[in-house]
Amino acid sequence: MLKSFRADLHVHTCLSPCGDLKMTPQKIVQQAVYKKLDIIAICDHNSVENISAVTKVAEGKNITIIPGMEICTQEEIHMLALFENIEAAFEMQAKVYDKLQGKNNPEVFGIQVIGNEFDEVLGFNERLLIGAVDMSIEEVVNGIHKLNGLAIASHIDRESYSVIGQLGFIPEALRFDALEISPNISIEEAQKRFSEYHTYAFIQNSDAHVIEDIGKCVTGYQIAEPTIIEIKMALKNENNRGIQNLKSTI
User: Fold this and answer.
1) Cβ–Cβ under 8 Å, residues 35 and 248
2) Residue 237, pLDDT score
3) What is the strand order of the sheet 3-11 is part of?
4) Dihedral (C-alpha) 196, 227, 65, 134: value to the nearest 10 degrees?
5) How many CB atoms lie within 10 A of CB 6?
6) pLDDT, tens digit (0-9, with 9 covering 90-100), for 228-242
7) Which stretch of DSSP H or E encloses residue 231?
8) pLDDT 10s digits, 39-51
9) Exposed, middle or buried: residue 142 (CB in 10 Å: 0-12, 13-18, 19+)?
């Protein structure tokens, strides 16, 4: 039986240098439950090190945590990588870390906090997570798909760090699973502005860096269960699965 799931598939934690320090595992899950979300994806910049803590906090609660990350390619294009399990996410992180150069300067970019499920600080990530990985967008998309993940182009309507903003177009060879729209415009506006990409599914997420923004934008998924396999079918309109543009109710 198919059900309707409210999902925000782009949420940062305090591990992201641009994320607010209040974006802790406990507070993120509390806010997601308050916003009546069924699914959230944790997508920190170039890292998955806080996902296990968020997942532990969500245990016993009626919400699913999808492991993900927001990868910055060598073209400085942001890509959402969503995975079925934490093992695949860590495997992708290993590939990213191997190609990520530089050391973080907390005074310039912000601190990168690794926490546990009790919101205790375990340490600080010293890599330059805000930086670009020495992998092309094609390499990133192919790497995600090899791990059976979803490759979604981040906030394509933005001038900075988007595939259209950086390249001017979406190459036909790229096999994105969906295109994400930022909270700055509506799905309807995006579909008109980017009508040449009508064959793609357009989704909208909050890209939350502060607690209040979680669930600011929500996409509905008509699926059997909250898994990557089901979400992928919904993005392709397969087996009666589908997506629906929703508004936050709170």
Assistant:
1) yes
2) 97
3) 202-204, 178-181, 150-153, 78-82, 64-72, 39-45, 3-11, 217-223, 242-247
4) -50
5) 21
6) 999 999 999 999 999
7) helix 228-235
8) 999 999 999 999 9
9) middle
Return the amino acid letter for 220.
Answer: G
- E strands, 156-226, are 178-181, 202-204, 217-223
- Report whether 182 contacts 155 (CB < 8 A): yes
Give yes or no for a contact between 89 and 18, defined as CB atoms under 8 angstroms apart: no
Residues in the chain: 250
At 168, list the tokens: 């001017």
Find all residues with CB under 8 Å of 185, minimum gap 6, and list them: 157, 193
pLDDT band per the 50, 70, 90 thresholds, residue 249: low
Q: CA angle, corner 49, sides to 231 and 25, nearest 5?
A: 75
Written as six digits, the tokens of 245 are: 């543009």
Tokens (6 digits) for 241: 């699965």
CB distance 78 to 159 below 8 Å: no
What residue type is assigned to position 209 of the chain? Answer: H
In contact, 95 and 66? CB cutoff 8 Å: no
In the chain, the domains with their CATH numbers are 3-247 (3.20.20.140)
Distance CA 130, CA 75 (A): 14
